Amino acid sequence: MIDFAKTLYTRHSSVIHAYISMTSGSAGRLVLSLVYFICIANGLSIAEFGLFATASAAGIMISRVLAFGFMSPLYRVATVKPLLVGTYSAGFAVGALLSLPLIAILCLAAYYAVFARDIALLVFLALMAAEILCWRGLEVVVIVLNGLGRFGRAALLVVIGTGIRTAAALVFSLSQSASLGTWSLFYLGANLLALVIAIVWFFPKVRFRWRPCAVHSAAGRIRFRSWVPRCCSTSSLN
């Protein structure tokens, strides 16, 4: 039985190591998230904590509009054709810029429909920027790293990002002016720092090239499906 286990491990060691790398990031994030929520709960009142959780959830949903769902093709090309990551990253950046007006409209609609009576507009926008631009941007880097098979770096980035937010929550809980407005600044700063670290130190060293139509390769054919404006006949699907 022991020999069989050793043989099985030898045959699938790379898969086992990759799985451990991926799950270690989730385990570290779980522990840090526990401390994170305890600190926020101690720093905010029950009502403010509920407003923050609701606004954060709204930001997570709206963040799916960023780049019109172009994250899926970016992950796919990182998996099957890593040489095109630079081209598709440029496409994602352009898509993200084009989606900002729609994101702004959705944020304002959500604010005036749900949050206008309870949260100041600037506080709400700070929370939205943290979720939609900063944390979603970090998730893009994590997905690209996973697509390239760099599971250890992806897991480490998740732990670092969560750790930064946890440290911000800890400092906030110890501060004298513990309010939702103050926490929104801490939250935005922590997520922005995590995004900068992700882009500067973790994103693969690639050359950004903007090609709005199709990209061909000898081994296979992966099409860059444009979204807005439609310079090709089809649009990107998430």
Explain how this protein is built.
By secondary structure, this protein is mainly alpha-helical. It has one domain. It is about 75% helix and about 0% strand. It contains eight helices and two strands, in the order H-H-H-H-H-H-H-H-E-E. It has helices spanning about 1-10, 15-45, 45-65, 70-80, 85-115, 120-145, 150-175, 180-200, and strands spanning about 215, 220. It has a two-stranded antiparallel ribbon with strand order 1-2. Strand 1 (about 215) and strand 2 form a beta hairpin. The longest helix is centred in the N-terminal third of the chain and has 31 residues, at about 15-45. The chain is globular and about 60 Å long. The termini are far apart. The relative contact order is 0.16.
- The proportion of strand residues reads under 5%
Characterize the quaternary organization of these chains: single chain
Content-based structural category:
mainly alpha
Enumerate the strands of the largest sheet in spatial order, edge to edge or round the barrel. Answer: 1-2
Number of structurally distinct domains: 1
Report the uncertain regions.
214-238
Q: For the terminal residues, how far apart are their CA atoms?
A: 45 Å
Q: Order of SSEs, N→C?
A: HHHHHHHHEE
| Overall outline | globular
Q: Helical residue percent?
A: over 70%
| Count of extended strands | 2
Give a quick account of the main beta sheet: strands, pairing sense, barrel closure: 2 strands, antiparallel
Rg measurement, Å: 20 Å
Arithmetic mean of pLDDT:
83
- The count of helical stretches stands at 8
